[in-house]
Amino acid sequence: MSLISSYRTIYFTFFVSLVAAIFPLPIMFNAFRPDWMVLVVFYWIIALPHRVNIGHSFILGLTLDILLGSILGMHALLFSLLAYFTSMNYQRIRNFTLVQTTLLLGLFIFVSKIVLYLIASSMQEIILHRHYFWSVFISMLIWPWFFLFMRYLRIRFKVS
Amino acid sequence: MKTIFTRGPSLTLRLSIVVACCVGLLVADSQFNLFSSIRIYLNSIVSPIQYVADAPQKMFNSLSDSVVTKQTLAERNEQLEKENMHLKADRLLLTQLQRENQQLRELLNSKRQFKNKRMITEVMSLRSDPFTHQLLIDKGATDGVYLGQPVINEQGVVGQVSQVGSTTSRVVLLIDASHGIPVRVQRNDAVAVVHGSGAWDKLKVPFIQSNADIEVGDVLVTSGLGGRFPPGYPVATISQFEYHEGELYATVSATPVADLDRSRYLLLLWNDNPLADADLTLDDPELFDVPDK
After folding, report:
1. A22 chain-B contacts, CB cut-off 8 A
2. Chain A CA closest to residue B7
3. Which of A61, A96, B190, B287 could join A79 in a cystine, given CB atoms 3.0 to 4.6 angstroms apart?
4. Where is the Rod shape-determining protein MreC beta-barrel core domain (chain B) (predicted)?
5. Of the candidates A19, A84, A129, which has its C-beta nearest B11's C-beta?
6. Which of A70, A77, A81 is facing B129, going by the closest CB pair?
7. B201 falls in which pLDDT band (50, 70, 90)?
8. What does the buried/exposed string (b/e) look like for B160-191 if buried means 16 or more CB atoms within 10 Å of the residue's CB?
9. What is the residue-wise DSSP string for A115-147?
């Protein structure tokens, strides 16, 4: 019973972050949108690595690929790699301070942005915009509040 | 405390399986285009998320539509009626011109059909991954939308359908770096190809000879040569024409005539079988070879 209810909460956060990832914004702000999907995957893998792992990250990435209309497997590959590195070191990351996890997350998102660019540029002709890397900073700004909020949710709904 | 290593295959094995899947998908999708037909079903599966994401904006729009005073409604109605009258007056002349054009074309033995089936569609959202310029519309395969279908608004060409779902479709805009469209200059019928540049207000016109008769301000319209877009719709205006000594081609750029990021309603065109009524005997090469005396 508790398994079902905890998965319900986890899937609800996934759904909300997918909606947030594609929520229509004015074009000016589009580049400043934080990477909600990376945030939510990163959090759940640190918190509950036996619940959310590579499989979930793969499915989520694939869903995001379909939603964004990008090449299938682009985000899926990235999220599963992120899940792998995080779940290999989840015990170490849990002992990090909030500042350290923020920096680590910033690094993750920066690397993922570069990898996305490399994959996309090898497949099709693309243009890199000036504002492309801004979302790294926005995500790092959001992460501490996001982390505290998610921890509150996890404890409040007894997700384990 | 549970660890993640208690059951199931090891992490490395899982990762290698998933990475193999991803690379397979990437290659299959980008190189061999295997998923263009399956995307209809995939898009339908995720469409609830799209509807949820678009709901607030839609609600806000309908709210702002319903909360208007009688005064503004009356004013708007009057303005629209005036506009309608002007358009109708123009149309009176248009039918006359159309008939005249038809007669002239009959004299020249070259018929052309101007009627296209079309459908109004609403833009659901202007969103995509950061590398491509696409927008999502609320018509899909159930409405007869097909891949490569031309999309215009009241100002000019917007783009073409790049992915079809059952109730939604994706339109790639003509400013996308992967998009090209055959055009001709309205003033002197010189042909060119317009490529997207990836920026919102700039298009590239490559391979223009330095002595070509193109000026800043020239209107480019679709030439219909690719067979995808019907001919005659405005695409862009030339914004820059520069030629540096010693270069093979001139640097030409253009601005799209349609407000790509601000249009709420678009028109889908059915450009089916453009050669249906053409008299193909006139294209017989032997006839052209005979010198005209």
Report:
1. 49-50, 53, 125, 127
2. A50
3. A61
4. 123-270
5. A84
6. A70
7. confident
8. bbbbbbebbbbbbbbbbbebbbbbbbeeeebe
9. HHHHHHHHHS-----TTTTHHHHHHHHHHHHHH
Closest in B3, B18, B46 to A66, CB measured: B46
Counting every residue written for chain B, the total comes to 293
Burial class (CB in 10 A: 0-12, 13-18, 19+), B13: exposed
Query: Within the 71-100 window of chain A, which residues sit less than 8 Å (CB to CB) from chain B?
Result: 71-74, 76-77, 80-81, 84, 87-88, 90
Nearest to B268 by CA among B219, B229, B232: B229
Q: What is the average pLDDT value for chain B, to the nearest integer?
A: 83
- CA B146, CA B268: separation in Å to the nearest integer? 10
pLDDT at A128 over 60: yes
Reported as type and span, the H/E element at residue B172 is strand B169-173
For A148-157, write each residue's pLDDT tens digit: 999 999 998 8
Proportion of chain A in helix, strand, coil states, percent, rounded to 5: 75, 0, 25
Q: What whole-number distance in Å separates Cα of residue B98 and Cα of residue B103?
A: 9
B203 touches A109 (CB < 8 A): no
Chain B contact present for A119, CB below 8 A: yes
Taking the CB of residue B278, how many other CB atoms lie within 10 A of it?
Answer: 14
Cβ pair A104, A46 in contact under 8 A: no
